[in-house]
Amino acid sequence: MDAKTLILDHAVRHFAEKGYDGVSLREISRDAGLNAALVHYHFGNKEAVYREVISRYLKALNEQRLENLRRIDPNLKGKRRIEALIRGYISPHLELCGDEKAHAYVRLLARFVMESHSLTDSIYTELLMPIRNQYLLALRETAPNISTDAVVRVFSFAVMLMITAPFDGSYRTMSGRDAWPEEPEDLIDQIVGFTVAGIADLAEASGAGIGKLG
């Protein structure tokens, strides 16, 4: 394994456990068994390491999300199209729960969306918003009688469930089971069903009804 990949593999675990502000490059280099100067050589500073750690996963996820969007049958309408859209966005992330090597990233992204500073805002705008906007546009076209604000809100609920459900302490307390999904597809189905029901309720309230969406 080359030094750059080794640094990133160790950095993701540290950022996932402690967040951006709680980690130093010295810790990462020590854990990777490398000289701190080598980390500076490859990345320059901590911000660059963090950006690369986040980017290498988000870019791959967004490629899959874009492919999922392209594959949706244009003849799908109403509820079935909304289901396909929500599933197409959340599945790539939640399927990582079934990949042990990606568990640290799943934890890292949960931290990432909760941490608010200029760096995370910049990464969010650069890497997440373009693909999210494509999905939001598709949802708006499918549910034209629902306000843009309401569609954004419901989609945001779905995204937050996607990110936080594997760490849901209340689920663990009430069920006595680990919130981390043994079968990611089951959790995907639950979030899709929950979100589609929310949009259907908004459609009914608008007088459109789920059958008249799109």
Automatic annotation (TrEMBL):
Annotated keywords: DNA-binding, Transcription, Transcription regulation
Lineage top rank: taxon: Bacteria
Protein name: AcrR family transcriptional regulator
UniProt-listed Gene3D superfamilies: Tetracycline Repressor, domain 2 (1.10.357.10)
Keyword Iron-sulfur: no
Regions recorded as binding DNA: 24-43
Signal peptide as annotated in the record: none
Cross-referenced InterPro entries: DNA-bd_HTH_TetR-type_CS (IPR023772), Homeodomain-like_sf (IPR009057), HTH-type_TetR-like_transc_reg (IPR050109), HTH_TetR (IPR001647), PsrA_TetR_C (IPR041586), Tet_transcr_reg_TetR-rel_C_sf (IPR036271)
Domain HTH tetR-type: residue ranges: 1-61
Keyword Amino-acid biosynthesis set for record: no
A molecular function GO annotation: DNA-binding transcription factor activity
Organism: Microbulbifer rhizosphaerae
